[in-house]
Design a protein that fits this description.
Residues 5-9 and 46-56 have low confidence and may be disordered. The protein is mainly α. It has helices spanning 11-50, 68-81, 86-100, 111-114, 140-143, 146-158, 168-176, 188-204; strands spanning 2-3, 6-7, 105-106, 120-121. It folds into 2 domains: 2-50; 68-211, no CATH class.
């Protein structure tokens, strides 16, 4: 409406404009808030992707001490460290039970073996350890380590064609190059029972220092 050439705006028009302007301000504020939230979320996702959190576990114990039970646990631990399936580990236990009843035996004919921790003595050429391995399997100190002796067994086992389909007794005899393969059959049931009785303990055991031979086991797998 005009009066004397001057345009006038009534109160209702001014109120409507104010409402519209206020609505626009609220919309702009909502848009800015939404954009900020999206930006924060995107930055968080990028940061999470670029730097994922890793949990470092202690190395698996491979040394449990002297005695048949601890030696058997080392055989299991070496197999787990190398991702050997149950039947392969049972084959390793079968071999050790047949050879030494899981005793870690030094040999007076191999002087270096006497310096290692051992459960007793046996004289069979140059054979030492829980698997009675000869010099071709490694140094005396290596063969006197139940975990390393088991690692060498598993490495040789994996080189056998079709080993995953073989029975534990046959596999144990083949790897040990035994002239009496049937002698291993009777050790399979106790080997399997030992495995199932102690695998839980081995899986939760964690240690460090000289109880974890992490560099030795798995290097030849």
């Amino acid at each position: 409406m005009t009066r004397n050439g001057v345009t006038t705006v009534n109160a209702s028009t001014r109120d409507a404009d104010a409402v519209i302007e206020a609505g626009r301000r609220r919309l702009r504020l909502l848009l800015i808030t939404a954009l900020v939230a999206l930006a924060v979320t995107a930055i968080a996702q990028v940061a999470t992707t670029a730097a994922p959190r890793t949990e470092r576990a202690d190395p698996m114990c491979l040394v449990f001490g002297l005695g048949p039970i601890n030696n058997g646990k080392a055989v299991i631990a070496a197999g787990l460290a190398m991702d050997v399936p149950e039947e392969g580990i049972v084959a390793g236990l079968t071999a050790a039970m047949q050879e030494t009843e899981l005793h870690n035996l030094a040999n007076p004919h191999v002087p270096d073996s006497l310096a290692a921790a051992h459960d007793g003595l046996a004289v069979d050429h140059q054979a030492v350890g829980i698997l009675q391995q000869g010099a071709a399997w490694g140094s005396a100190i290596e063969r006197m380590s139940p975990a390393i002796a088991a690692e060498r067994f598993y490495t040789a086992m994996r080189s056998v064609d079709g080993w995953e389909e073989m029975q534990p007794a046959d596999l144990a005899a083949l790897v040990q190059r035994s002239a009496w393969p049937h002698a291993y059959l009777g050790e399979v049931p106790p080997a399997r029972e030992f495995y199932r009785s102690h695998i839980g303990e081995v899986q939760v055991a964690r240690c460090s220092g000289n109880q974890a031979e992490t560099g030795a086991v798995g290097a030849h797998s």
